[in-house]
Structures are given as C-alpha cells and as structure tokens.
Write a structure and sequence with these properties.
Layout lengths: L1 H27 L6 E7 L5 H14 L6 E7 L14 H13 L2 E5 H6 L11 E4 L3 H10 L3 E3 L2
Parallel strand pairs: 1-2, 1-5, 2-3, 3-4
Helix pairs in contact: 2-3
Length: about 150
C-alpha cells in the first residue's frame, strides 16, 4: 500500500508541477494578443451597419487600446464619406474612429473614379494608393483578420 500511495503522490506532484509551469508560462505571455482586424466596405447601403460593427467591436474588447482596426472603403460606399455629402452621424463616427487609431483607408482607384482627393473626404482618411483590395491583401499578409459585414 505504501508503494501505491507513493506512486499516487508522485503522479499528483508531477501533474501539479506541469499545471504550475503552464500557468507560469501563460502569465509571462499576454493572455490575449491584440487582434488586428480589417473591415471591408464597398456597399453604400451597409455604411451605417459597418460603422456600428466597428464601434461594437471596440466596445466589446474593452476599448481601442485592445484592438487594431483598419477600415478599407472602395466603390459606391466611399460616397458616404465625401465631406460635402456625409451625414452628421457618419462624420462623428469617423472623427471618433480617427481619434481611436482606426486606419481609415480610401481606395485610390475609387477616389480617381469619383474625382475626389483626400481633402474632399472627411478628415482622418489616408489613401490606399494601390487600391482598396490591394490594401486589404497587404493587411491580411500582416496578420489582420478579414471581416466583410
């Protein structure tokens, strides 16, 4: 019986040591790596929906410091971000996203097609010179998760 108890004690100690080492390793590395996410928007009728998704994402992770988000816009959706036509709520959201560090990328090809420059868009935008889909692919190659609501 003593051998059995000794064996059980040894196995328990080994299991506890393993569990402790795993917990210690987890404590040394961030428990949740900061996610990087790219949102793809090209449908004009989805502008409000996508902006709400981004805000919900930021809120859901506990704030902008816990996630890196890029919004890449091309096609008809870019019209919603022309400063002369933008709805007030869109302007407010874009302003807040820019303050939160969200990358707001406008497709260079779409900008040419709509005959607009960055000055014609709401403040905070950068140009995806090579194109929106190229920018999305670049971000994905950098580890960004792709979302197209």
């Amino acid at each position: 019986m003593n051998r059995r108890n000794a064996l059980r004690s040894a196995i328990s100690a080994l299991g506890a040591t393993f569990a402790f080492s795993r917990a210690e390793a987890a404590a040394e590395t961030p428990s949740a790596a900061k996610l990087k996410v790219v949102y793809h928007l090209n449908d004009l009728d989805k502008v409000s929906f996508v902006l709400s998704n981004i805000q919900n994402h930021i809120n859901g992770v506990g704030g902008p410091e816990h996630v890196t988000i890029a919004l890449v816009i091309h096609g008809h959706a870019l019209r919603a971000f022309h400063s002369a036509r933008a709805a007030p709520d869109v302007g407010k959201r874009v302003d807040q996203f820019a303050k939160d560090g969200v990358e707001l990328a406008a497709c260079g090809n779409t900008m040419k097609g709509q005959n607009v420059t960055l000055n014609d868009l709401l403040p905070g935008f950068v140009s995806a010179e090579k194109g929106g889909v190229v920018r999305i692919a670049e971000l994905q190659s950098q580890g960004y998760l792709y979302l197209r609501p």
